[in-house]
Specification:
This protein is of the alpha/beta class and about 260 residues long. The protein is about 35% helix and about 25% strand. It has one domain: Ribonuclease Z/Hydroxyacylglutathione hydrolase-like (Metallo-beta-lactamase, Chain A), CATH 3.60.15. The structure holds zinc ion and fe (iii) ion.
């Protein structure tokens, strides 16, 4: 049975995500920007937290971890490479490792670029990927620590996941990301359709920013760095994918 997914808005534009395995009763949270809204959501759902999964060391993803662990006794999973700058870990992870939440196994991907040591969690049975500040809805995270090459390698890994994988990122930046996407890819009909829909409500209670990989592949300007039409419209028809990505990322930084 797939996880039940619940998005918890935190701070000004962050999301924590709850995944609940109905068969075992296990519940995990991915990132804890602050503890209180997560605890309220757990209480409202009637779920007991068993696991805390951390994507990267930035404060807006980990500030509530210690408080939530103290309140629930949940196990904490995070990147071994970042152990020196994360709350204490029960399970230190690297690419290729697995996490278990109830009866389901998740795979750990290194998605460095925004930070070095950023990881993502892919749960193939439930078709969910938690990408935080690597791949985001219509965007990607800023390059604070890694290079364009590192981020491109990370995005390429995520692009290779099954098309129907639902991408759950760490923030709702969709408005700003949509404006940038239109500025570089204004003739893309899939992009226009997505932006029109993004003003509407969904019937499953999840944020509009959550979308399947197939839609990101069709509309996310950074993933479209592979597209000959995108390269041509940027005036760099011969450029490699990574150079095209780097150019798009630099344009977005100044946008
Ligand atoms: Zn971050
Ligand atoms: Fe963040």
């Amino acid at each position: 049975m797939p996880f039940m997914l619940h998005a918890v808005p935190c701070l000004s534009d962050n999301y924590a995500y709850l995944i609940h395995d109905p068969a075992s009763g296990a519940t995990a949270v991915i990132d804890v920007p602050e503890a209180a809204p997560v605890q309220q959501a757990l209480a409202a759902q009637g779920w007991n937290l068993t696991d805390i999964l951390i994507t990267h060391h930035h404060d807006d993803h980990i500030a509530g971890v210690q408080e939530l662990r103290a309140a629930t006794g949940a196990r904490v999973w995070g990147a071994r490479a970042d152990a020196h700058r994360l709350p204490p870990l029960d399970h230190a992870l690297a690419e290729g490792d697995s996490v278990t939440v109830g009866q389901e196994t998740g795979h750990v991907l290194d998605v460095s670029g925004h930070t070095v040591g950023h990881i993502a969690f892919h749960f193939p049975d439930s078709k969910l990927a938690f990408t935080a500040d690597s791949l985001m809805a219509l965007g990607c995270g800023r390059l604070f620590e890694g290079t364009a090459q590192q981020m491109w390698d990370s995005l390429t890994k995520l692009m290779d996941l099954p098309d129907d994988t639902v991408i759950c990122s760490g923030h709702d930046y969709i408005k700003g990301n949509a404006a940038f996407a239109l500025s570089v890819d204004g003739d893309n009909p899939d992009l226009a359709a997505r932006i029109t829909r993004s003003g509407a409500d969904r019937n499953d209670g999840l944020p509009m920013a959550i979308a399947p990989l197939s839609l990101e592949l069709a509309t996310n300007p950074f993933l479209r760095a592979t597209d000959p039409g995108m390269k041509a419209s940027l005036g760099m028809p011969q450029a490699s994918d990574v150079d095209t990505f780097a150019h798009l990322r630099a344009l977005k930084d100044k946008f």
